[in-house]
């Protein structure tokens, strides 16, 4: 007879910090890839080989780095680290781009004293531009020489990967395994534009010093990504470079590798889910030109798939997003988006509420709430749009933002 997993006496603790786990080093710096002189390269490095799982863009047009990383994750399942450049996407660059990605990984391996295939590569930036290897090579040498642990290394790496982001995004969680080993999970990400699953224009790195079984870790990560990075939208565009990694080096020294049923697994899983979810929400909050963060909740759908389709249609609608920017409770646009979504919708059954204030009942103006009260809700920086289709038990949640004039200014080139 199987026994239920032991409940943890050490709940997962989450903080908006970038403290690297044991055995992990990191850094970031400016290699002059960006004309602004801002940091544009980063590296994370494990002093021992780390088990690696990942999810990548499903775009049929994908960057050279995605092709290289996907192959190495599938064949090897391990890595020593990741080297990242910002400003040049290395997408749509043909065979020369693939050669540049491979050279970048090999150079990072040589600089840190590990095999070339034990490094992964990420690039982000403008599509169609080859990597400036004359700047990247010395940049990698400087990264390898500047690697450091703790919060200094984590913050530097989290800053070095940014593009149009206005701030770094990072979280650290700690938990204790069944044998009393204290473990850490740290995640950081970039993403502000071209945000729409699957996944978003984003890079995300989740690092841990726990020893974890790779199979369950991959399943957990896919689930976590599905409920975080695949639940956000800024502008409805999907990128060529999206990559998210979960890397575990076991440096904390827990005796038994974590897997379902082993004490500590649930706390580890909670940490991964929480970090990916908070990073995803931060990407939307930092969306290009965004001023408002909106949680779109759909309930009462025929299925979870229908609920997601309805929520995405609303979250992606430019008419809806611009009304949010103007602070206008134009619920008619929400109804319209629901109607053209792939979800089954019966107009006469739809209810809509803004932060609990009902605007629509049975598909028409509810009359219970004044427009002034609704405008007060929309004047805030964050609010929830709740939609009940009254057709079943399907539910879904999408995190979205408004669309302002600033978005056009950022993306007009």
Task: Give a brief description.
By secondary structure, this protein is α+β, with helices and mostly antiparallel strands. It has eleven helices and 15 strands.
Structure write-up:
The chain folds into two domains: 13-285, L-amino peptidase D-ALA esterase/amidase (4-Layer Sandwich), CATH 3.60.70; 293-411, ArgJ beta chain, C-terminal domain (Ubiquitin-like (UB roll), Roll). It is α+β, with helices and mostly antiparallel strands. α2 runs parallel beside α3 (133-146) and α7 crosses α9 (331-340). The radius of gyration is 22 Å and the shape is globular. Strands 1, 2, 3, 4, 5, 6, 7, 8 and 9 form a nine-stranded mixed beta sheet that branches. A six-stranded mixed beta sheet has the order 13-12-11-14-10-15. It is built from eleven helices and 15 strands. It starts with 12 loop residues before the first strand and ends with a helix.
